[in-house]
Structures are given as C-alpha cells and as structure tokens.
Design brief:
- It is a single chain.
- The termini are close together.
- The strands form two sheets. The chain has a five-stranded parallel β-sheet with strand order 2-3-1-4-7, with helices on both faces. Strands 5-6 form a two-stranded antiparallel sheet.
- The protein has eight helices and seven strands.
- The protein is 48% helix and 14% strand.
- α6 packs across α7.
- By secondary structure, the protein is an alpha/beta fold.
- The protein has a single domain, classed as P-loop containing nucleotide triphosphate hydrolases (Rossmann fold).
- Bound molecules: zinc ion (ZN).
C-alpha cells in the first residue's frame, strides 16, 4: 500500500494518515515532520533546511527528493507507506516515480466553507501544544487546556482569511500534481467533508476494490 496523500490545509490529511498508519502498520511519512526533526537535532540536513525555512523559501526539490529517497529505503517502508506533503512539485512527482511505484494518489476534498468551519474552530495550547476543537474535541473547561491549564488560543494560520489564502495557494501548487496522477489513472478522490472515521472507511473500501488493500 504505497500511497500519496493530497489535500488542502485543514482537510485532515494528517489525521487520516495516522489512522491508516496505525491500523496497517505502515509509516506515515511527512516531509515537514522530517525537516522539523532534522532542524531540532541540528544535523547537516537540518542546517540546510533551516536556511530556507527561515527565509520563508520552499526547500529545493533536490533536498526534498533526497530526504524522501533515504526515508523510503528504510526497512519499515517495505510493506508500504503514506506520503504526506510530498510530492509538491511536478518534478518531485516525476522523481518519485524513479524511486518507487505509487499504488494510488488520494485526493481529499471538501468545500472551502467546510474547511473554514473546521479549522477556525481549532484551539491550541501555546504552552504544551495540545490541540482542541470547539465542536469535535472541546476542552473540559471552555478556553482552558486540559493538560496544563493554560489559556487556549486560535493560531493565526487558522483564521478564516488565512485559510482562504492558503487554499488558493494549494490549488495553484497542487493542480498540476493532481492532473499528473489523474492522467496515470492513479487518482482516487475522497469526500472529506464527513467524520474522519467515515472518510477513512470510504478510502479503505475503494483501496480494497482496487486490490491495493487486501
Ligand atoms: Zn496545555
């Protein structure tokens, strides 16, 4: 089960990936997470990546591709993997073909208004990083972190205007990649405007139909 996950910020890709990852014992590979780890560990790669991130630039294709190549060569990827946040350029998609065979690219979709409702209800703890949602995962005391008792805040990225702008940017960035996988017959479109369990069940059903999941 070698999958690529595609979807706008706030669609819940990370949640679906970790649900599948746990259930089937395949790694959930997020290039963003790898970069954050390398930066935190202060490795050579981390230092390189940090330069770009600090300048607000995208990490160049060559570095990202090398990171993914190395990660996919790890033994835990033998039974499959879920790539999240990669590829994000056409060149990355083409290079990925040379590294491995992808079984399907999963496109998670929902109307922008649904995403905005979801994302803008999100509250985070500035102290311990716990994440809540006004509707789906409310803290026991409104506005207060269950874990450490701090005042919860809404991240700037979760403001409706920011979500709208990031959605536009996502469309610009990913439309060529979506078309790339569509042309190859690998694209599976999933309605992600439902509960996470339903979204994942639907995806599993389609993967079974296609013989990707046994
Ligand atoms: Zn907290």
């Amino acid at each position: 089960m070698r999958l690529v996950f595609i979807g706008p910020p706030g669609i819940g890709k990370g949640t679906y990936a970790s649900m599948l990852s746990k259930k089937y014992g395949i790694p959930h590979i997020s290039t963003g997470d790898i970069f954050r780890e390398e930066i935190a560990k202060g490795t050579e790669l981390g230092k390189k990546v940090k330069e770009y991130v600090e300048k607000g630039l995208l990490v160049p294709d060559d570095i990202v591709i090398e990171v993914v190549r190395r990660r996919l060569s790890q033994p835990d990827c033998r039974r499959g993997f879920i790539l999240d946040g990669f590829p994000r350029t056409l060149r990355q998609a083409e290079e990925l073909e040379k590294i491995t065979t992808i079984d399907a690219a999963i496109l998670f979709e929902a109307p922008l208004e649904v995403i905005i409702e979801r994302v803008s209800g999100r509250l985070v703890c500035p102290k311990c990083g716990a994440v809540y949602h006004i509707k789906w995962r409310p803290p026991k005391t409104p506005g207060i972190c269950d874990v450490c008792g701090s005042q919860l805040v809404r991240r700037k990225d979760d403001e409706p205007e920011v979500v709208r702008r990031r959605y536009e940017l996502y469309l610009q960035t990913f439309t060529p990649i979506i078309e790339f996988y569509r042309r190859k017959g690998l694209l599976i479109e999933i309605d992600a405007s439902r509960e996470a369990e339903e979204v994942v069940a639907d995806l599993e059903h389609i993967l079974k139909q296609r013989g990707i999941l046994k």
